[in-house]
Design a protein that fits this description.
Strand content: 5-15%
Strand order of the largest sheet: 1-2-3
Largest sheet: 3 strands, parallel
Radius of gyration: 16 Å
Shape: globular
Helix content: 40-55%
Oligomer: single chain
Structural class: mainly alpha
Length: 174
């Protein structure tokens, strides 16, 4: 679901509260039998309304954490994030949700994707979404490019001495 009401209505055709209710039903139905990670879109800004307050992102994240999800994916859905913003939001989320694993999802619309991965890694994040060749995008954000390229993220992390367990040469070949 989206942390922006406007984006949530455009993307999912329902209110945020309706999305939360539907996802809550899924979480209760699974009841710990399978791991569930919830993705929160537009955490670093919405192309339709601009800034999304960090407090709003933290509040939605906390509501899902309180339901017992196994993790949260914090999404820069359209590539609006910058490194200082990433560090600040991660710090706020880590304070509020110390037991909930976080995954970060960045797009490279403004060329900041890898810089944001670096900021997140330096803030203690070790889980990232990516896509081969940087595929992806958001149909509700004109000009939004794809996700950060997995092969670029792995190259960056290896350069920082962070082991990923992924063979970069095999991934690049794919």
């Amino acid at each position: 679901m989206s942390t922006s009401e406007t984006h949530n209505r455009a993307n999912l055709r329902m209110t945020q509260e309706d999305s939360f209710a539907a996802l809550s039903d899924v979480i209760r139905f699974v009841d710990g039998k399978r791991p569930i990670t919830v993705s929160l879109s537009t955490c670093f800004g919405c192309p339709m309304v601009g800034d999304v307050p960090a407090a709003s992102v933290v509040a939605w994240a906390k509501r899902f954490a309180d339901l017992g999800v196994n993790g949260l994916t914090i999404c820069d859905t359209t590539g609006m994030a910058h490194p200082d913003q990433v560090k600040q939001l991660i710090e706020a989320l880590q304070l509020a949700l110390s037991e909930t694993p976080l995954t970060l999802h960045f797009h490279n619309t403004r060329g900041m994707g890898l810089a944001n991965v670096l900021a997140a890694a330096q803030s203690g994040i070790d889980r990232f979404d990516g896509s081969l060749g940087g595929l992806g995008g958001c149909p509700y954000a004109k000009g939004a490019t794809g996700n950060v390229a997995s092969e670029d993220v792995l190259f960056l992390l290896q350069g920082l001495g962070i082991s990923t367990g992924v063979d970069l040469l095999k991934l690049a070949h794919a």
